Amino acid sequence: MKLYSVPVFLFLLLSSTLTAVAQQNLLDLSFNGNGFTRTDFSLSHDQCNAMALQADGRIVLAGIANLSGQICGALARYLPDGRPDSSFGTAGRVTTTAGGTQTHFNAVAVLPTGKIIAVGEKNTGGSSSNYDILVVRYLSDGTVDSTFGANGMFIQSFGSYYEYGNSLALQPDGKILIGGTTNYYGSRECPMVVRLTANGAADASFGTGGLVFVYALDPGLGNSRGLAVACGTDGKITLAGSANISSSIHYLLYRFNADGSPDGAFHGDGRNIYDLGGGFESAVDLMLLPDNRPLVLGYDAGIPAMITVAQFGNDGMPDPGFAVPAGSVKKIRPEDLFARKIVRHPAGDYLIAANIRDSMFGNFTAGVFAIGSLGNTDSAWAINGLFRSLIDTAATSTEASSILVQPDGRILLAGTTVIGGKSDFFVARLRPARLSVSDTKTVSLTCSVYPNPTTGSKLHMVYELKNGIGPVIIELLDAQGRMIVSKKAMAQGAGKHQDVFALPEGLADGVYLLCISNGTQVARQRVVYKR
What we know:
Strand order of the largest sheet: 1-19-18-17-16
Strand content: over 45%
CATH topology of the largest domain: Methylamine Dehydrogenase, Chain H
CATH architecture of the largest domain: 7 Propeller
Number of strands: 37
Structural class: mainly beta
Radius of gyration: 24 Å
CATH class of the largest domain: Mainly Beta
């Protein structure tokens, strides 16, 4: 087996260099009145692992709920405006147990029919480490669809071994792909792909009885994992994860033909292991470009942790047009940063759900990192490409697990928020960061700013609210519409209000855009700053 260095992007961000954007807030206050929704299944620990978007704009989250010690697979659905969907389950929530003491959902997808597929694993009731892959299909109202598999479920079991269902992809013909991990093959952790028919049966036309084991193709691997799966327009299947080679962890990337056999056109044997130059690297997400080239998201869990993005051709070789110059490693600035999911925005940029660790064993802050289509840092979204929102000011830790983009360009970020020692699901909606200093339209909110032009360190403002819905967010953007700094004020009633906005140190001379909003009312004013 050969190891190859590939052109990758290593994103590191240092909190001390991000003073100007550390408090930025791009929350769309029209979403549930405050920009986010929190869902509590229990008085204990809930965890959101995945998100899907329905064609009608409703949002589905999937994960885990702890109901008095019984760990359940959990789904929550929201209306397009962020409110819980009362037509789904009980008050927008569904929990499922499939035997044993624990059921987890790690991935979710919505079928064209509106039915929902959730993938994860269930404990068999024996050893605490003995799990079986679990696939459940739900009707659009949240009830289990009994026409799928056996009583609405498919279970993949290898007896006393464990199997985890980590990822999910839907084929155009309705078949279901699950990327996962098992220790069945030689008692080592082994990446695997399972394919089901649309009705929830193992697909006998794929691999052996619907299964493909990576170790059967590559017995030299140590403990390795399959963490992301995708299906191309050509019917070929790509699996990404981590591979253990001589006690070092590297990217794992496999490509299979539609029948589960290795794709010989991909790196000559259908598989490749990528050494990014670190000691512990893992791919965590995968997306295929329109021409089926794989774009792989991951991280290097060093100190500090780094986000990595690598793009490859359909021949399995590094894409020389990505992260120019080819083979380069670009260090932005160090900060402890972990990647979870990647999505492409209609503007052509890639947006990454990222989590910034506050300290070695501390809490996380959810954020989004933007890169251009060629792997360049995209500062059109935010300075240094990173923006993070004050999603939940009551939380001690907020960790993103998923990111999606709505057709109108607004961004959905979902994950887990920790408050008072317990954790809940959250979903937030962020507005696109691209505004312009020419966008000064005032909608139902009058505002005056002085002095303007200003040479000082503070702006004074007077604004009048017609209603008192939601907190007031004050934001300063540069001439390209990039967030500089923001401030969140307490919810205020109707009437006139005064406030003082501190300008950041080192602000360059120029024209800026000051935005004031409480979710239903918006004012934008040009501000000229000259030292």
